[in-house]
Amino acid sequence: MKELTIGIDIGGTNTKYGIVDKEGQVVFQGSISTAEYNEFKDYFKGLANAIRQAIQGLKGEHKILGIGVGAANGNYYKGTIERATNLKWKGIIPLADMLKEEFDIPAIITNDANAAAVGEMVYGAAKGMKDFVVITLGTGLGSGFVANGQLLNGKHGIAGEVGHTSVNPAGRYCNCGKRGCLETYVSATGIKRTVYKLLADHLEPSELRGIAFDNLNTKMITEAAIRGDVVALAAFEYTGRILGMKLAETVVHTDPEAIFLFGGLSLAGDLIFKPTIRHMEANLMPLFRGKVKVLPSGLQNQAAPILGASSLVWNYLDNTQQKQLQKIIA
Amino acid sequence: MKELTIGIDIGGTNTKYGIVDKEGQVVFQGSISTAEYNEFKDYFKGLANAIRQAIQGLKGEHKILGIGVGAANGNYYKGTIERATNLKWKGIIPLADMLKEEFDIPAIITNDANAAAVGEMVYGAAKGMKDFVVITLGTGLGSGFVANGQLLNGKHGIAGEVGHTSVNPAGRYCNCGKRGCLETYVSATGIKRTVYKLLADHLEPSELRGIAFDNLNTKMITEAAIRGDVVALAAFEYTGRILGMKLAETVVHTDPEAIFLFGGLSLAGDLIFKPTIRHMEANLMPLFRGKVKVLPSGLQNQAAPILGASSLVWNYLDNTQQKQLQKIIA
């Protein structure tokens, strides 16, 4: 009998879901719209139906062990999604309890960056590591920490908001209400803002002068940089410098074995890794230099968010078993 | 039969040692000079003799379960003291193995701030907490993290060097070789430097204008502030602002329940706590505001370093027992 888990990644536009085995093979995947459901109860009905159909379509003997969900502002302890700015449904949604009841199996929720960290540990490049960090570079900058082999959730289930550490208290406006947060500089949006800052400050010609802010994306900046566009190259150097400086601060907090970069900006390869590593090393206290690897995520593919979410179940089952053992012996 | 542990705190000038029960009662304490021993092997002989005498003097039936050592640059994984800048003996000293052999009981080493964190959890104000931070304010600024109920050691055993996060890359020179590290602003030495900066920049009269840098200490600055000295008051405000700003960064990393301040500067009470809390809250992203307590350590007494060191043994024995249980069942 094949043991399987379900992974659900709730984004503002679409919800991806998939069925995954212990080795990280996605045996089924699909998606439904998130944005078109104005009412959460309609969305939940649509999602539950889609998952039920997917399960019914599975061939061979199998057992579904649980459901993992990655979502912005997903709270691990409460099993809720709380006031996510990218979702229409406001308030506190008890999604884990609803999934548990609907499918009669364990359901675990966490934020998407924490799911990425567990995914990296279960299926990706952090297999066997006990202390590492995953930085997700999307619209914003998310982070997930593993310490002593366990996801670091913190007291309130909201650990790992490195995107909202400060680069400059009088700097760029951030969606969180503060100014100068790391994610306003280092993210898909951040590098766009940097390109526009550089175009404003400097006189150099650049192919990016012909592109409107709303049309510009990381891929265009990357391709321009590969073609030698000085503004695009400078934007990567600027982004890597700030990321490197701030990663040096993260390193002295938790002393990780490695930091994995995940998402669009990390696909630019050396353009982002080289300045990041150089400035991280330069800003570390000597005791830490040369010790911490900065690496691309091992889950750089379309299914990564589903893998991250499904990995929560394996991780949960492992932890639950250990707790039960301790109780029996105590 | 009374179960006891030994705690040793190795400072640059003196080494304190004590015998402690599970409730944190120090049943014996003593000290020997650290600085007067030029050779480590002579120091070790002196320390071992002193401890042996203390054990022989104990009344009633007892069992010594282990030895814990707190020392600058103590490495938990290797059981060594490595290149401590405050000690005469250079290189890597395998102190844990030497103590194990000498006394035939487990010996655990960690740095003094990590020992303080475990001490806070075992005997102090963090009893029952699973996620917290201890900040030690002495000559420098040390920090120890507990996450998921475990000391956060990191991959290389050097986690928790928050004293070397950056306040200003072009700021004050630090012993670590960098510039602008947090501990150059927030520590006994840091507030002295701030007083001198303020005396240089401003015209206000201050009783501190009559005191040479080498003679000035935290207690004098505190007493001047209590008497209403504006420079001393401004120095606390400046120190608390920087500490608060940087604690906001620490909070979004690990989401602690509380941050405990320990050591000389923390004894100034409201003078340091009020600006620290105000600026921490102002610099936190809204999601975290009002959630994290900043509190005085519960171990503010002479025996604190001994308690911290001895607590390592209880913590080690608990962890070892859990690991054995898991092995038996696996």
From TrEMBL, chains A, B:
Source superkingdom: Bacteria
Species this chain originates from: Chryseosolibacter histidini
Similarity remark: Belongs to the ROK (NagC/XylR) family.
Protein name in UniProt: ROK family protein
Pfam families membership: ROK
